[in-house]
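Reading a protein record of the kind used here takes only a little practice. Each token is a code from a learned vocabulary of local backbone shapes. With that in mind, consider the following protein and its fold in token form:
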Amino acid sequence: MNINDLDQKLELEYPCNWCYKVVGEEREKLENAIREVIQEREHKLAHSNTSRTGKYISLNLELLVHNEDDRQFIFDALKAHQHVKIVL
């Protein structure tokens, strides 16, 4: 890998399916946060993992994003939600 490869932006063809990993402390609050952000958009939501201590849960959220702004808006809105700890 060359150093210039790190500077290149991910090139996606839109619309495309995108998967976010959303981490929080309570499944119900996490599901509600996701619903508040994506509203009535068609999506798939699946359990991903639970931390060893059981404090955190992660869900995979997959949905169709229409363009880079749409993808980034969802990421930012999830990240800003009070019941979401991390978005990947």
The chain has a mean pLDDT of 92. Helices lie at 3-7, 27-38, 68-80. The CA atoms of residues 37 and 77 lie 6 Å apart.
